[in-house]
Amino acid sequence: MAVCGLSVRPRLRRSCKARAQVSASDAYAKAGVDQGAADSAVAGLVRALGAINLGRPSAQVPLPGHYASVIKIGEEMGIALSTDGVGTKLVLAEQLGRFDTVGIDCVAMNVNDVICVGAEPLAMLDYIAIEKADPAVCEEIGVGLAAGAEKAGIEIPGGELAQLGQLVRGVDVSGACFGTVALDAIVDGSAVEPGDVVIGLPSTGLHSNGYTLARSALAEIPLDDDRLGRPLGDVLLEPTEIYVKPIVELLRSAVDVRGLAHITSGGTKNLLRLAADVGYEIDDPLPVPPVFELIQGQGGVSDGEMSEVFNMGCGFCVVVPAADEAAALELLQAHYPAAKRVGRATDGPRRIV
Question: Which of 112, 131, 149, 220 is most deeply buried (CB count within 10 A of its CB)?
């Protein structure tokens, strides 16, 4: 285990109102992650934090259930904040003795959330919890953090290295990111209308979600097995894609960007975290990479559960008016040739079909 009691968590973002719930999954629970218990735990945290008495009006912009929080720092500007970590992908890194890419995952999981509110990420702080400080391991983690920071265009001015031998078995890597966004340019999905187009951007693989289930399903296959065209360990350790620069470029263009969704655990159901009272029809999904088919076959996981736990080949979604589809695709396909229209917003109810 990477971190006792902490490493097998699903990806959950806290908010002061309930978000669209992802149903608990049988195979995931058997592998060690109880989604229902996690949702209840988050609800308890939200109740406690909701009781904070500031003695002044809150500066928080109401974005219930969204990917990042925004705090007003003036009449026109806000700071977007998000925090996340690598999770049990670190168990795999430890098995392979390779930590030089997990820093990229840490950066990606944070900056990809911050851009979902229309913010431009500026900086991140990292937090490394480790059983005993290992200079070689920490330097490798730093190499990945630096590579991720360069790709995202952010700084990492500081962080924390905590030696927690009584709590940690291995290492856990997490971070907190902030960016800036004009208050009148926040993208929360409230402008999405029926008929708007959903564009999908391809993932590089599992990203940083579902590794507890993936490792359980693939436990009998050696990490040097090359049935997927390269060693399985390399496929599973492939870093999470960082979508910052293409999305910031899109936000600065003339395209009317109405919704942005980082597709993590929960798959395309993450679109329901956008504020508009609409549904979404995903009628032409991106191709599913072979690694997901291998996990499903080896683990006997249902189609529905696979879609609830993994991104299934789509790492990010952009919602634009149909009139802007061509312009958005031209820009995004310059970065991701496989990007395409995958669906559309529908006239309710709030569900994915």
Answer: 112
Please give the structure tokens belonging to residue 101.
């890419």
Determine the pLDDT at residue 32. 63
Main-chain dihedrals φ then ψ at residue 102, nearest 5 degrees: -65, -25
Instruction: Give whole-number Cα distances, 337 to 65, 79, 319, 331, in Å.
Output: 31, 32, 18, 10
User: Residue ranges per domain, the chain?
Assistant: 26-44+57-185, 197-346
Cα 227 from Cα 239, distance rounded (Å): 20
CA atoms within 13 A on the CB side of 330: 7
Nearest to 125 by CA among 71, 67, 83, 73: 83
User: How many CB atoms sit inside 10 A of residue 74's CB?
Assistant: 8
CA atoms within 13 A on the CB side of 241: 20
DSSP-based three-state secondary structure for 40: helix
Confidence of residue 225 (pLDDT cuts 50, 70, 90): very high
What's the CA angle centered on 99, arms 95 and 104, to 5 degrees?
Answer: 130
The reported pTM is 0.88
Which CATH fold topology does 197-346 show? Phosphoribosyl-aminoimidazole Synthetase; Chain A, domain 2 (3.90.650)
